[in-house]
Structures are given as C-alpha cells and as structure tokens.
Amino acid sequence: MTENRGAALETALAYHRAWTSHDFERAMTYIAEDIVCQAPSGRLESAEAFRGFMGPFAQILIRSNLIAAFGNDTTAVLMYDTDTVPVSDAPGAEYLTVKEGKISHMRIIFDRLPFEAARPAAAKG
Amino acid sequence: MTENRGAALETALAYHRAWTSHDFERAMTYIAEDIVCQAPSGRLESAEAFRGFMGPFAQILIRSNLIAAFGNDTTAVLMYDTDTVPVSDAPGAEYLTVKEGKISHMRIIFDRLPFEAARPAAAKG
Description:
- Two copies of one chain form a homodimer.
- Chain A has four helices and seven strands, in the order E-H-H-E-E-H-E-E-E-E-H.
- Chain A is α/β, with parallel strands linked by helices.
- The radius of gyration of chain A is 14 Å and the shape is globular.
- Chain A has helices at 7-20, 24-28, 47-60, 113-118; strands spanning 2-3, 31-39, 42-45, 61-71, 75-84, 92-99, 102-110.
- Chain A binds chain B through residues 1, 3-4, 38, 40, 67-68, 70-72, 75, 77, 79, 91-93, 95, 107, 109-113, 116, and chain B through 1, 3-4, 40, 67-68, 70-72, 75, 77, 79, 91-93, 95, 107, 109-113, 116.
C-alpha cells in the first residue's frame, strides 16, 4: 500500500516511523520551524505549536499501523490506524508538503468525537 | 496534487466528482453491491448500508474541493475539504480499494465533533 518513491514520501514515512515508535524528538527533526498545520482544532503555526499538539498525542499512542502511503517529491498522503490509551481504533490521515527535507505544511484529519467522549466529565468545557 | 494515473484512482475520482456535484445516484454506480465501508461510526456492509450513510451527507453538501488524490490500479487515497449546511470547513479522507471498476472497500475519516456540536440539543442521545 506504499506507492511512488519520492523525497516527500520518504520524509513523511521517516516522520511517521519516528513518532509511532515513541521517538518524538526524532520526529520533530522532520518538522520545519515555520510549519503550518491545519488540525481539527484549528490552525497551528510554528514547530512549537505543532509540538504542543502532536507531543501529547504521541505520548498516549500504544501502536500504529500504516494503512496507505502515497507521494512524490513534494507532497505525500499517509493514512494510519492507531490504538491510544483513551481510544482504540483511532485512524488519522495526513497530507504533507515537504521542502528541503522538512515538513512545511500538514493537513491532518481524525475524529475527535471518541477522544471527547473519553475525557473525564469534569474536564469537559 | 493529483498523481499517478491508474484504474482505481480514476474510479475514485469519478465517484468523488459525482457525489460532490450532487449526482448521488451516479456516485452509487461506482459502489460495489458488497462494499465494506469503515466509517467513524462503525463498519457498514452493503451498498444499501453505504447509501444510508453517504446519501444524507451528500444532501447537506454545499461545495467540496479536492486537496489530494493519489492512487494506482487497485487502491487510491483522496483528501478533500467540504462546506456543509451545518458545518463549514469539514475535511475528509478516503482510502479506497477498487475491483472491476467498483469501490469494494472504503476507509473514511472525518471529524464528527463539529457535526455533533451542530445537532439540535433535543436530538442528542
């Protein structure tokens, strides 16, 4: 299910392998300082903002497997499944743009509803 | 952002063009009778079950634009943005398997949270 070698796909897969193997600091080496990430909760600008979003998710990850990976030299799409501490079977999809070996843009889609449902009632706003 | 010609990608794009141009019956001609669809709400088996899921969504669609499309002769990935009647800026991603010109498997990811939030309070279970 992995298709079409290309620099962006290679970077996307290296990033994915790093964070799904619990090496988030290595994953961050593939993230551009000025990354723009369009996440379900809104737009994040900068590697630090991205770290604040993906770091906590990487910490609750139990396992992930890649469902699909396509790309070329400039963009790539990954789809993957995850099991996390609060939610099992939580898939995600990412569309990534890579410039000079770093991910400069990411559009990420996942279903927030089961995560919201798993939050302690006292924490719900 | 559309890459790699192939039979599955062509079918995926034809399906996508049909439902996003409000021709849902034409979209259904690309769906296998025994489709298995893994949706955020669970597993759907059969074209009729799929119709019950995607038909109502197609009816509330205002517009869609394709963000990314990759594929080959057997599988494809689409990512797209939509505006719908209850929710604006609602992206989705699909990983599709195509056999004999019909979509036999679809894994679809989208964020149900804004749709849940937009439901009338009386309708929430």
